[in-house]
Write a structure and sequence with these properties.
By secondary structure, the chain is of the alpha/beta class. It is built from seven helices and five strands. The protein has a single domain, classed as Rossmann fold (3-Layer(aba) Sandwich).
């Protein structure tokens, strides 16, 4: 079965790719250069696509109009070192990013005749991003089946597959390691140094480090 998979080059998308391949999917990987600070992830995405035998891997350049209001895409906004309290959405949120990425994935999937779109969204360690919630993914799936020729004029239905949705970060790493993911070839940092080295202090780095430490201690 053909599947379009969003491949960022981070730990979650790497695990998502490994699961898709383990389930026999013919993966067409889609990555985005959207002006993110962590551009090293694109090199990681290339390596992952080769490692797991993706049928095709595309890196698409996207100019997001809201880039100046997110710490991930604007150097004028500092990346926070602590997770915001309560339900506050962090400044690392990129306006409607996943809606844009999933829409482009949907376009490619319809053209390919693929019925699945895979995404490494996670509701437990999602840092408060509204476009990683199951409600959003279900709504996008409904839209995909109501707003495309494939969904309306044929019997082919689109499905958004998010296998990591309710897994802890520790569970994600354990699953990926079991499927052959080498996380040394992934990056999760929001604010890497000039040579791509992770900062070790941002929210994403802290979550990753804590999970990997737990995996090592209990293995």
């Amino acid at each position: 079965m053909k599947a379009v998979l969003l491949l960022s080059g981070g730990a979650d998308s790497a695990t998502c790719l490994a699961i898709a391949r383990a389930r026999g999917r013919e993966v067409f990987a889609l990555s985005f250069d959207y002006g993110q600070r962590h551009r090293r992830e694109l090199a990681c995405a290339r390596a992952l696509a080769r490692r797991f035998g993706c049928r095709e891997h595309r890196i698409v350049r996207v100019e997001l109009p809201g880039a100046d209001v997110s710490a991930l895409t604007s150097r004028k906004i500092a990346v926070p070192r602590r997770r915001p309290r309560g339900r506050a959405i962090p400044v690392t949120y990129v306006p409607a990013r996943n809606a844009v990425f999933l829409s482009l994935a949907l376009s490619w999937a319809e053209a390919l005749g693929a019925g699945e779109i895979w995404i490494g969204a996670n509701v437990i360690d999602y840092s408060g991003y509204p476009d990683c919630r199951p409600e959003f993914l279900r709504a996008f799936e409904r839209m995909a089946n109501r707003g495309t020729k494939a969904g309306v004029a044929t019997r082919r239905r689109f499905r958004v597959v998010a296998p990591l949705l309710r897994m802890t970060k520790e569970q994600i790493f354990r699953r990926g390691i079991g499927l052959g993911v080498d996380y040394a070839f992934t990056i999760s940092c929001y604010d890497p140094g000039p040579r791509g080295a992770p900062c070790g202090r941002c929210d994403s780095c802290r979550i990753r480090s804590a999970a990997l430490r737990q995996v090592r201690q209990t293995s």
